[in-house]
Amino acid sequence: MDHAADAHRTDLMTITRFVLNEQSKYPESRGDFSILLNHIVLGCKFVCSVVNKAGLAKLIGLAGETNVQGEEQKKLDVLSNEVFIKALVSSGRTCILVSEEDEEATFVEPSRRGRYCVVFDPLDGSSNIDCGVSIGTIFGIYMVKDDHEPTLDDVLQPGKNMLAAGYCMYGSSCTFVLSTGSGVNGFTLDPSLGEFILTHPDIKIPKKGKIYSVNEGNVRNWDGPTAKYVEKCKFPQDGSSAKSLRYIGSMVADVHRTLLYGGIFLYPADKKSPNGKLRVLYEVFPMSFLMEQAGGQAFTGKQRALDLVPTKIHERSPIFLGSYDEVEEIKALYAAEEKKA
Ligand SMILES: O=P(O)(O)OC[C@H]1O[C@](O)(COP(=O)(O)O)[C@@H](O)[C@@H]1O
Ligand SMILES: [Mg+2]
Ligand SMILES: [Mg+2]
């Protein structure tokens, strides 16, 4: 018998066991949060299986509708949204759902209601669907403040009030990254078992990075600090080597690489889009939460991203997130600009 291999096997940690272990730290917990997370994981497994078959099943292509941001919806966006709404409502633990694909928030009917609000982007990076490049799902979880009738104010809260956040990336493997507020852990789906296994325990983002990630096609519309930072990445004046540019165009994939390898991901404001492109509740907040939990930073150009208080569910914000030192540089450039003004 190979004892080393056997020991390795007994170390296997499924996401279900991981979440139950976390729950046992709170003896007063009734398990509601674990049930909710299990349903989110189920939704991700479902979307993963559909995404994997997309090319074969001819599921890709336009559904002939536009979403609230006026963007074309793909069939997979519609499907993923339906899957998540079903999974979340059937958990019996949610009361308000905010999805990128729905103009209005969904208020769960009282008989199926729980205490959690979930904000999510069911399929992020949809422009990459047709060419089979990595896409993902992003989510954040809030809890309703008191015993009251849930209102939109329960989700229009700063990101620092989130209880948990995460994403699932449908890439060369299916990876689920989660933070419940005490570090970040990554799980990889074993398709033969149908289980997510802990493969990236306690992820810490490197303090510095050699990669910057931005849509450089927008360069002519950038503000001074963004343009200066990117210029420094390409032509450093301190004798260091130039940074590499990597940009996939799926936030989940670009942020995942940034989290593991270090560096910076930016979607800044520009003259055409003064609020940037990415949505505060279900893109900026969850990714900022994960970055901070992994030891990095997230900044809007004006403030710590997680301090932002959204006033609308589909609000947008510029975002700079990643390695601590890289974001520190961006912050210094914005501070210098403000001093000049
Ligand atoms: O094509 P651009 O302008 O670079 O934008 C890319 C960004 O847009 C997004 O695709 C928006 O997400 P959706 O696909 O959910 O609308 C992000 O994933 C990505 O970071
Ligand atoms: Mg998105
Ligand atoms: Mg989307």
From TrEMBL:
Domain Fructose-1-6-bisphosphatase class 1 C-terminal as annotated: residue spans: 205-334
Family to which the UniProt record says this protein belongs: Belongs to the FBPase class 1 family.
Pfam families documented for this protein: FBPase, FBPase_C
Domain Fructose-1-6-bisphosphatase class I N-terminal: 13-201
Entry keywords, A to Z: Carbohydrate metabolism, Cytoplasm, Hydrolase, Magnesium, Metal-binding
Protein name: Fructose-1,6-bisphosphatase, cytosolic
Native organism taxonomy: Eukaryota, Viridiplantae, Streptophyta, Embryophyta, Tracheophyta
Main subcellular location of this protein, as a coarse class: cytoplasm
NCBIfam families per the UniProt record, alphabetical: PRK09293.1-1, PRK09293.1-3
Any one Gene Ontology molecular-function term assigned to this protein's record: metal ion binding
PROSITE patterns for the chain: FBPASE (PS00124)
Enzyme class: hydrolase
Origin: domain of life: Eukaryota
Enzyme Commission number(s) from the entry: 3.1.3.11
Cofactor(s) demanded: Mg(2+)
Gene Ontology biological process terms, A to Z: fructose 1,6-bisphosphate metabolic process; fructose 6-phosphate metabolic process; fructose metabolic process; gluconeogenesis; photosynthesis; sucrose biosynthetic process
GO CC annotations on file: cytosol
